[in-house]
Design brief:
By secondary structure, this protein is mainly alpha-helical. The chain starts with a helix and ends with a helix. It is elongated, with a radius of gyration of 18 Å. 72% of the residues lie in helices and 0% in strands. It has one domain. The longest helix has 26 residues, at 11-36.
């Protein structure tokens, strides 16, 4: 364990990485919900009074929306799905799946830790399972070098725990 502590990623960088994955996952769920209702990013952007590419840019850049921007989009989504029988209303809980709930719990637990070592052990499978999101974020060029290196270090440490 002492050797592991010497090579631990910084807590703040792990938090930053998890927050980016959280946004990526949430926005993916939102995009899926919109597609199921045949609503486009362009339609949503325009209805929110933004340029046609605004929401798509937010998705592609894995932008952590300000609360005011999120609420603006959410109200528009509610209005678009309430106006007719063509679109089933999106329920907020639909966007927060089990993986997101677990990510939030891990982020919360991490805030109480000095170092992420205990969480890397207790949440080993969770951290290993993040690889698919990290790879997706890399393809979008949405992870910085520090975040990429942090995940690689986490994955290496998780392999050694086994």
């Amino acid at each position: 364990m002492s050797e592991m502590r010497e090579h631990l990623p910084r807590k703040e960088t792990v938090q930053k990485l998890l927050q980016k994955i959280l946004v990526w996952k949430f926005m993916g769920n939102m995009t899926r919900a919109l597609k199921q209702r045949n609503l486009t990013h362009t339609e949503l952007s325009k209805a929110a009074g933004r340029v046609a590419s605004a929401f798509n840019k937010t998705i592609n850049q894995v932008e952590d929306l300000r609360l005011s921007s999120f609420l603006r989009y959410w109200v528009v989504i509610s209005e678009l799905t309430a106006d007719d029988n063509l679109h089933e209303k999106i329920v907020f809980e639909e966007l927060i799946d089990e993986e997101i709930r677990r990510m939030i719990a891990v982020l919360s637990d991490l805030s109480y830790e000095d170092q992420p070592s205990h969480l890397l052990i207790s949440e080993r499978e969770f951290f290993i399972g993040l690889r698919v999101h990290v790879e997706g974020l890399k393809k979008k060029h949405a992870l910085g070098p520090e975040e990429s290196e942090t995940y690689e270090l986490i994955a290496e440490l998780c392999e050694r725990i086994d």
